[in-house]
Write a structure and sequence with these properties.
Layout: H1 2-5, E1 11-16, E2 21-27, E3 30-37, H2 41-57, H3 74-84, E4 121-126, E5 133-138, H4 139-151, H5 167-176, H6 180-186, E6 190-193, H7 202-217, H8 225-247, H9 253-273, H10 276-284, E7 297-298, H11 303-311, E8 320-321, H12 323-329, E9 348-350, E10 356-358, E11 365-366
Parallel strand pairs: 1-6, 6-7, 8-11
Antiparallel strand pairs: 1-2, 2-3, 4-5, 9-10
């Protein structure tokens, strides 16, 4: 439904929900693969509560803080997380990502991007505590909570299980396991949904982190020191080959003339072999280039809007029964196979996208046929 609401047929849907984050690849309205991680809003809320508990009580030791010491209510802690939680940008900035892909409203210089991040402390009024009070929470600590829960950059990726991968590694591993053609289409149609997708800066951070992994490891499933050495050696060989080709002397003009004269008959033959009708159709046909092979985020109206759009589609029936013929023959009509009028030119077939199309252009009136003999 999220893919339909985004206006595309294929997409990589990242559902950042309460208990888990689910990454689903959809190709031509069909689900190809689905992977998930336990990193979601629940863990983020628990970390936020521990941060507020430390600020209010001043106790950082987990043994000292008991479960009975609930200094703040669940709704108020959730409201603070939804209002103040944000994610800092990645150290790596993708050169392929454009500002319009992530709903950037104001254009600004890259050097001024860091100044837009919140600094200082936020004064939060609490009403669910024993006595109403105000506390000051640092924005940097809130960003640290988001980094530890969603990305966890300080831990080696090999230390995680498959169900607890950070978000950027979850997306990368999901794309790596897809077929080549499906990956090329889905990676340029990334859509976000879920409550945690509304966190400030998390979409930009996720796209940049995945881009950095792709630039370092490419799309090779095998990793290690040996692979890195082989990749570096191949890069050196390519650079040396390019330098040698640049240093080699240019061919003489006579050789160019001979090559051109040799290539002329073949080009003339290919021009005569072209069909005039196909060339005319190609000129009149509007071919839209398909954007693929680059990481890009798309905005979606959400699954509810997609379901509403699908409900409004008018899908014709496979066969219609004429009212007059039904009143004349009823259930006992056309009981023999010879009484059924089957016309090949009026058959209906399933078209692209599941919609039914008829070659005749009008409804075909059918009786119940052999099913009429009860």
């Amino acid at each position: 439904m999220t893919t339909v609401a985004a206006g595309v047929r294929s997409a990589l849907v990242i559902d950042m929900g309460w208990s888990e984050t689910v990454v689903t690849s959809v190709y031509e309205y069909r689900e190809v693969k689905s992977t998930r991680s336990i990193r979601g809003g629940k863990n983020l809320l628990n970390k936020t509560y521990k941060l507020l508990h430390t600020v209010i009580t001043g106790k950082e030791d987990e043994e000292v803080s008991r479960e009975s010491d609930h200094v703040i209510s669940f709704p108020e802690c959730e409201d603070i997380m939804c209002r103040l939680m944000w994610c800092r940008g990645a150290a790596y900035k993708s050169a392929q990502r454009q500002s319009t892909q992530l709903d950037t409203v104001v254009e600004q210089d890259e050097t001024e991007a860091d100044t837009s991040h919140p600094r200082g402390d936020a004064r939060i009024p609490l009403r669910s505590t024993g006595a109403p009070r105000n506390i000051d929470v640092s924005f940097e600590k809130l960003a640290d909570v988001c980094d530890d829960v969603m990305f966890d950059p300080s831990t080696n990726p090999s230390a995680f299980d498959d169900n607890e991968l950070p978000l950027h590694w979850l997306v990368y591993q999901h794309l790596l396991q897809l077929p080549l053609d499906v990956r090329a289409v889905c990676m340029s149609r990334i859509t976000f949904t879920g409550g945690c997708a509304n966190i400030l800066g998390i979409k930009e951070r996720l796209i940049d982190e995945v881009s950095s992994i792709v630039d370092k490891r490419c799309w090779t499933p095998v990793t290690g020191k040996g692979v890195d050495q082989l990749r570096n050696s191949t890069q050196l060989r390519r650079s040396s080959a390019i330098s040698r080709s640049a240093e080699s002397p240019a061919p003489s003009e006579s050789s160019d003339d001979t090559e051109r004269s040799r290539s002329r008959p073949s080009s003339i033959a290919t021009q005569t072999e072209e069909d005039a009708i196909e060339a005319k159709l190609a000129r009149n046909r509007k071919i839209l280039p398909q954007f693929q092979g680059q990481l890009r985020a798309l905005h979606s109206l959400g699954p509810w809007a997609g379901a509403s759009l699908l409900c409004q589609l008018k899908i014709p029936a496979m066969a219609t029964v004429d009212k007059e013929l039904w009143l004349q023959q009823g259930a006992s009509g056309a009981s023999r196979p010879g009484d059924v009028d089957v016309k090949i030119q009026q058959r209906q077939s399933m078209g692209a996208g599941g919609l039914i199309r008829a070659s005749g252009g009008h409804h075909v009136n059918w009786t119940l046929g052999t099913w009429g003999s009860l």
